[in-house]
From TrEMBL:
Residues annotated as domain Phenol hydroxylase-like C-terminal dimerisation: 79-258
Short name of any one Pfam family annotated for the protein: Phe_hydrox_dim
Species the sequence originates in: Jimgerdemannia flammicorona
This protein's name: Thioredoxin-like protein
InterPro entries membership: FAD/NAD-bd_sf, Phe_hydrox_C_dim_dom, PHOX_C_sf, RIFMO-like, Thioredoxin-like_sf
Length: 263
């Protein structure tokens, strides 16, 4: 299970504290219980006779498959709130809550002459045990001050990502960043210090309609934006408002080891 692999890797290398590995049981035990329940429902069907189309057995099987289909594929798995899936309940409008799998969607690089062309969000999530920090910029001209402040925080040596730097792994190996601009905005229209700091910017692709855009799928306000942290296993770790991102007690402090060996 990828849920276990990345936790073992970070703990074994001293990048994370033991409490991270302990979350494996808490998260996967509930999943195992549900698998056992679904299996019991399926195997508890009568074994004699055939599954006739429209019959009671066929309808029961169809009901179980329809109800638990996303769970079968792993897309519908959700983990309970914890320090690893931090849900403070203060964002009632978001469509996907921490503990759920991050939805996929199309993205267009802001500079197609340099980049490879359209891609998908999940293609940016490499198999490496790396946290993905998605900065949904909202309207850059509206959020210019918040974006500049975020750029300053990321550039500061004492900034918390640098606090967790490990001698055996660089900050860039542990964290990656992607800026996602609404399709109605041109990221090159206004200079943004955050773009210079990170150098990775994409435009939300909504060619398939509003529901196909990442802002809509995640329930992010297209004007205000948000910062979203995705765990190495593709599960949403936490949401932060764009204007206050990284300024308070941060998400990573609860399980990553500090550079100085402290907790």
């Amino acid at each position: 299970s990828w849920n276990l692999v990345w936790k073992l890797y970070l703990t074994h290398r001293g990048i994370a504290r033991p409490c991270l590995l302990e979350t494996y049981h808490d998260e996967r035990f509930a999943v195992a219980e549900k698998i056992a329940y679904i299996s019991a429902k399926l195997t508890g069907q009568p074994q004699s006779g055939s599954v006739s189309i429209g019959g009671d057995m066929q309808r029961e099987l169809q009901y179980v498959c329809d109800k638990h289909g996303p769970f079968f594929t792993g897309i519908g798995i959700e983990y309970p709130p914890s320090f690893l899936s931090l849900d403070d309940g203060q964002n009632p409008d978001i469509a996907i809550r921490p503990g759920a799998r991050a939805p996929d969607g199309r993205l267009n690089p802001s500079n197609p002459l340099v980049d490879d062309g359209p891609t998908r969000l999940l293609d940016l999530f490499t198999a490496a045990p790396r946290f993905h920090i998605l900065v949904f910029t909202g309207i850059p001209s509206r959020n210019h001050r918040a974006l500049e402040r975020l750029a300053e925080l990321l550039a500061m040596p004492e900034m918390y990502l640098d606090t967790f730097r490990n001698p055996r792994v660089s900050t860039r190996e542990l964290f990656d960043f992607a800026l996602i601009v609404p399709a109605i905005e041109d990221p090159k229209r206004e200079k943004c210090e955050l773009l210079d700091t990170l150098g990775v910017c994409y435009v939300d692709d909504v060619r398939g309609g509003d529901r196909d855009g990442l802002y809509a799928r995640y329930g992010i306000d297209i004007e205000e934006g948000a910062v979203l942290i995705v765990r190495p296993d593709g599960i949403i770790g936490c949401w932060e408002a764009l204007g206050s991102a990284f300024e308070h007690e941060n998400y990573f402090a609860s399980f990553l080891a500090h550079r100085d060996g402290g907790t």
